């Protein structure tokens, strides 16, 4: 079997309402190779290394997990599992009838993208699931992170009857999810002060998201450019961003940050953690604006504090624009690049040829399997 790594590098300048300055897109590493058909003896999802079953916390790695989606009897080779592959993190802003600007979509374009994801075997997770490596999607499917910035009215609103407006992004997501097997309505929403229009039902909308399993993330209170602020102001904005959420949902845990405009503060460490007047924040994941897929959280190259995202948009097939349409085309032609789940959140399955790409610390969960050789 032929395996190789290829790195594609491209630079794309993203200029729009919520973009940063020029972003560097790294196409990422690709491991090529044929499909595997050989049955794997380790079909019960036990680690391939027999010694691993005797390891200290043996239970979580080898026994069924509490999550119903776990299917420990799937042969990872049968589904082409590759849990070291890449994961697209899609970035959405407004939904506007005319499609809006470069960072927006029409409701129809958004729905069509979700239907494409369903048909192509992508299943949604949240940013927090990515950064914590808690990926629970059916065997043979690829996780995709859906992220929404700026907490605009088109993303979530209630009807007069108090239902989710079916024409909002969350309404459309729930509708597509209801008709797609194993496709949960999961997403991460990065909110600013006065979320979702700042109306009377603003708190209710934020609470509804939390109660329905959506992630509420920090996008700063005032949607500020952090670069030109003194350190104390950076920390004030980020701590206030947490409070936008916790003032409404007291027990919410704000785990991830989406940098406004994709712009770092001068001291990048302050984006991750800090404090202002006794209020603290501690982000486990930070989202950028551009412009390629993220590494698997189990891959040695994964950087939770600098996660690239892919701007949602149709691609016309011309010059690479690093939109979702562009990347979907790349993945259709290079499916081996993608993360493919073994269906068991506890194990990390991948073709054994990729073993040296595993990040340190995951050895006990690793389930390398022998792929076909010819
Ligand atoms: Zn924004």
Q: What does this protein structure show overall?
A:
With about 375 residues, the protein is α/β, with parallel strands linked by helices. It has helices at about 60, 105-120, 125-130, 170-180, 200-210, 230-245, 270, 325-335, and strands at about 5-10, 25-30, 90, 120-125, 140-150, 190, 215-220, 255-260, 275, 280, 285, 310, 350, 365-370. It has one domain: TIM Barrel (Alpha-Beta Barrel). It is built from eight helices and 14 strands. Helix 4 (about 170-180) links the parallel strand 5 (about 140-150) and strand 6. Helix 2 runs parallel beside helix 4. The protein is globular, with a radius of gyration of 21 Å. The relative contact order is 0.21. The structure holds zinc ion (ZN). Zinc ion binds near residues 18, 150, 219, 223 and 260.
Give the helices and strands, then pairings:
Elements: E1 5-12, E2 23-31, H1 58-62, E3 89-92, H2 107-119, E4 122-125, H3 127-132, E5 142-149, H4 169-178, E6 188-191, H5 202-211, E7 215-218, H6 231-246, E8 256-258, H7 269-272, E9 273-276, E10 279-282, E11 285-287, E12 310-311, H8 324-333, E13 348-351, E14 366-369
Parallel strand pairs: 3-5, 3-12, 4-5, 5-6, 6-7, 8-11, 13-14
Antiparallel strand pairs: 1-2, 9-10
Helix pairs in contact: 2-4
The chain binds zinc ion.
Residues 18, 149-150, 219, 223, 260 line the site of zinc ion.
């Amino acid at each position: 079997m032929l395996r190789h790594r290829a790195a594609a590098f491209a630079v794309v300048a993203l200029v729009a309402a919520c973009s940063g300055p020029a972003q560097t897109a790294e196409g990422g590493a690709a491991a090529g190779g044929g499909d595997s058909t050989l049955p794997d003896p380790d079909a019960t999802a036990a680690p391939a290394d027999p010694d691993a079953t005797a390891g200290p916390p043996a239970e979580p790695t080898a026994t069924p997990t509490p999550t119903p989606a776990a299917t420990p009897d799937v042969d990872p080779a049968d589904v082409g599992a590759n849990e070291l592959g890449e994961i697209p993190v899609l970035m959405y802003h407004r939904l506007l009838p005319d499609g809006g600007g470069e960072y927006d979509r029409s409701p129809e374009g958004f729905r069509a993208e979700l239907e494409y994801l369903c048909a192509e075997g992508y299943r949604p997770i949240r940013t927090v699931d990515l950064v914590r490596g808690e990926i629970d999607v059916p065997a043979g499917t690829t996780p995709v992170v859906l992220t929404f910035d700026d907490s605009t009215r088109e993303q979530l609103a209630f009807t007069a009857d108090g239902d989710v407006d079916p024409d909002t992004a969350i309404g459309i997501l729930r509708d597509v999810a209801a008709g797609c097997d194993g496709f949960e309505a999961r997403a991460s929403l990065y909110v600013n002060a006065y979320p979702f229009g700042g109306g009377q039902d603003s708190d209710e909308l934020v609470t509804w998201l939390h109660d329905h399993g959506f992630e509420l993330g920090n996008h700063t209170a005032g949607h500020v450019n952090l670069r030109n602020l003194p350190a104390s102001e950076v920390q004030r904005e980020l701590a206030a961003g947490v409070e936008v959420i916790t003032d409404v949902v007291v027990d919410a845990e704000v785990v991830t940050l989406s940098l406004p405009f994709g712009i770092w503060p001068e001291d990048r460490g302050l984006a991750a953690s800090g404090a202002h007047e006794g209020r603290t924040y501690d982000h486990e994941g930070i989202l950028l604006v551009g412009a390629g897929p993220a590494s698997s959280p189990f891959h040695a190259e994964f950087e939770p504090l600098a996660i690239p995202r892919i701007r949602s948009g149709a691609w016309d097939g011309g010059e690479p624009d690093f939109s979702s349409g562009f990347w979907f085309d790349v993945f259709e032609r290079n499916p081996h690049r993608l993360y493919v789940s073994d269906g068991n959140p506890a194990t990390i399955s991948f073709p054994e040829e990729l073993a040296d790409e595993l990040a340190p610390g995951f050895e006990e969960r690793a389930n390398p399997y022998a792929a076909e050789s010819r």
